[in-house]
Amino acid sequence: MKQVGYLDDVAYGPFSCEAQEIGLKYWLGKHGGRIMVNKKTWYAHLFKGEPYRAKYLELYGRSYARTSPTQLKNSIAFSNDFWMNNRWEDRKYDLEWLIDRFKPVPTWEKK
After folding, report:
1. Among 14, 52, 96, 103, which residue has the fewest nearby CB atoms (within 10 Å)?
2. Residue 33: how many CB atoms within 10 A of its CB?
3. Is 54 helix (H, G, I), strand (E, B) or coil?
4. Rounded CA gap, 7 and 17, in Å?
5. pLDDT tens, 88-108?
6. Which stretches of 29-94 are DSSP H helices?
7. What is the pTM of this model?
8. Are 67 and 16 within 8 A, CB to CB?
9. Where are the domains of the chain?
């Protein structure tokens, strides 16, 4: 939390572009950081069907809402603009730095 803060569910919408927001905040942030892979773990995601929606309301005081196709499209557009145009004010590096850090990427076209 100290490094990346809360996720921006206003600009991104609910449950959209979390990986981009978290990953880029770690890589580009003022505190420095990187993303590492731990292959000795597993990850589970609970599908929040009807039985869980009532519990969500009880726990968080608001209804569980799915992301609509329009919200998802807007979230992706916001994320693309935000990161490609270096709009995050708390960054230490621009996105170009991250791209240069991993050059050459074998699957990318050479220019």
Report:
1. 103
2. 15
3. helix
4. 10
5. 999 999 999 999 998 888 888
6. 50-60, 69-84
7. 0.73
8. yes
9. 18-101
